[in-house]
Amino acid sequence: MRLLKRPNYLGLDGPASRLFSIAPDCRLLVMLREPRERAVSAYVHYQRFGFLPAEPVAEGLAKVFAGDYDAQYARAAEVREFGLYAAALTRWSDVFPREQLLVVTFESFKIEPRAVFDRACAFLGVQQGQYPSALFERANEGAYSPDSMAAYQTVNDVFFRYSEGRMTRRLRPSLSPAKLLKGVSALSLARSARQSKSAKPILPHDLAARISDYYAHDLARLEKDWGISFGAPAMAPHEYPERQHG
After folding, report:
1. DSSP code of 54?
2. Most buried residue among 77, 139, 197, 205 by CB atoms closer than 10 A?
3. Beta carbons within 8 Å of 168's beta carbon, 6+ residues apart
4. Please, what sign has the CA dihedral across residues 49, 56, 11, 125?
């Protein structure tokens, strides 16, 4: 068995047809996170890697959802659009039979990790009931400290060169001793700041409402077409509602 983990493939246009041309019988396991929570997490993640500027989350996220960053930062739209799950699943189910997709939610996994893991194992045709220790550990936990974000900005400026629009980045081939020392010091500070369990930011009411409105139609489609609502148990592929058109 070969496994491929690529979270961003769900939101992109090309991967479904390319994957089908290589592995038409593969099984696709999709884990969705509540889209407003995902948007906050994605925004901080993109900041950390230098694809968006470092600034307070509420201010930056408001600009992302207003489209203010789209012209200058090529990946800004991904923060918004990768949470449009119904649209994304439609693209994939237009290529792959729906019985080859299992859709679960991160929220249900947090509540019942063993049950969700067993369902995934059954779907993939592997033995159930064996649980790796990592299943119960938090991985890639978000860091919302302003000190951490500022330090990572320095790290990115020192160690990486970015393409136009900051779509991709590459390590700089060489650094002066002074630059290297600056980068290493900033990286140490960034990692130290990540250890301080800063609280996830609370979005202003008007911004939270704007983000909710952005996803409302897609969430309704997700429940109608896939039987998925956040906090509800995942459905097996054969239980998905008949797809509605129009």
Report:
1. -
2. 77
3. 162
4. positive
Integer distance in angstroms from the first to the last C-alpha of the chain?
38
Q: Cβ neighbours of residue 193 under 8 Å, at least 6 residues apart?
A: 143, 145, 147, 148, 151
pTM of the model: 0.86
241's CB contacts (< 8 A; 6+ apart) are 224, 225, 226, 227
Which tokens sit at 236?
């097996």
3-state secondary structure of 173: coil
CA proximity to 119, closest of 242, 237, 240 = 237
Residue 149: Cβ-neighbour burial (10 angstroms; 0-12, 13-18, 19+): buried
Q: Which of 15, 56, 245 is nearest to 147 (CA)?
A: 56
Chain centroid to CA 32 = 9
For residues 239 and 229, what is the distance between their CA atoms, to the nearest angstrom?
14
Kindly give, in sequence order, each residue whose CB lies less than 8 Å from that of residue 69, ignoring residues fewer than 6 positions away: 52, 60, 63, 76
Query: Which domains can be identified in the chain, with CATH numbers?
Result: 7-137+201-239 (3.40.50.300), 145-198 (no CATH)
Look up residue 234 and give its DSSP letter: P
Closest by Cα among 132, 151, 137, 145 to 200: 145
69-126 pLDDT per residue, tens: 999 999 999 999 999 999 999 999 999 999 999 999 999 998 899 999 999 999 999 8
